[in-house]
Design brief:
Elements: E1 3-12, H1 21-39, E2 45-50, E3 54-60, H2 64-75, E4 83-92, H3 107-120, E5 128-130, H4 145-165, H5 168-180, H6 183-190, H7 194-203, H8 206-223, H9 229-245, H10 247-250
Parallel strand pairs: 4-5
Antiparallel strand pairs: 1-3, 1-4, 2-3
Helix pairs in contact: 4-8, 5-7, 6-7
């Protein structure tokens, strides 16, 4: 029986500079624990912290890995050492809960690695890139896999331009609004007026960035034979609830931003 799955392989830019390697390695171990908490009793997930600056995730559902990757990108603590995610999704025969992620060999893992390597070679690096299966015995979404790959990556490239244009405070407001869901809660947390928060959201194109994320997730969920939307919604609520409960841990010393 085929199981629908998604994968990301995450690396960190400039991880060997400024003697920050140990800090980043400890942070990735912390993120590994976050992912385990976020997905518990919701999405079957295996996560591995490899080689100091690499994180690997295999998760059930076509949208799960991208969902996790996007949340990681919004809580990321080191702006000078940004993460980048090579992503893939498709069908596997193995039960994800029984996979040994350290030794598992599969074409999907190879695709995620190829997507990661594509990003590694970029000078102006994107956060996300997908490689989809191009199968000879095409079925399901793979009939149009090349087209889907082009459309998703084009959307991600356009979204990246908007993310890159955000100032530090606009990025913070975008992330907090994504987690808290209300402008007045962001205003209260940062100690700013709602008018100021609204201005930062508008100038930082918060709604455009987040709507692009939501739309990509909806498309990925729709490509599977199984209906994953309820699971993905629950996953997102679990993540948000966890972050809200420990907001100062996820966004330490951020209130001083002007």
């Amino acid at each position: 029986m085929a199981n629908e799955a998604s994968i990301f392989i995450m690396d960190i830019s400039n991880s060997s500079k400024e003697n920050i390697g140990n800090d980043l390695s400890e942070y990735l171990e912390q993120l590994k624990n976050y992912i385990t908490e976020w997905t518990e009793n919701t999405v079957v997930t295996k996560v591995s912290h490899r080689a100091g600056d690499e994180l690997v995730v295999v998760s059930s559902g076509y949208a799960s890995a991208y969902t996790l990757a996007f949340y990681l990108s919004r809580i990321w603590r080191y702006p000078d050492h940004k993460p980048y995610f090579g992503l893939a999704f498709g069908d596997i025969q193995e039960d994800i809960s029984k996979i040994n992620i350290e030794t598992w060999i599969h074409p999907l893992m190879k695709q995620a690695r190829e997507a990661n390597n594509y990003l590694k070679k970029q000078s102006n690096r994107l956060l996300f890139h997908f490689k989809l299966p191009h199968l000879s015995d095409k079925q399901g979404f793979t009939v149009f896999s090349k087209q889907f790959e082009t459309l998703i990556n084009t959307s991600l490239t356009l979204k990246q331009e908007q993310i890159n244009e955000q100032t530090e405070i606009q990025s913070l407001v975008c992330s907090l609004y994504f987690i808290l869901g209300q402008q007045n809660k962001v205003s209260e947390y940062l100690g700013r007026t709602t008018a100021t928060i609204s201005h930062h959201m508008k100038q930082g194109k918060t709604h455009l960035i987040l709507n692009a994320f939501y739309n990509i997730v909806k498309v990925l969920d729709s490509l599977g034979v199984q209906d994953w939307q309820v699971q993905t919604d629950k996953l997102q609520e679990n993540i948000r609830q966890n972050i809200r409960t420990h907001l100062n841990d996820y966004f330490p010393e951020e209130r001083s931003l002007s």
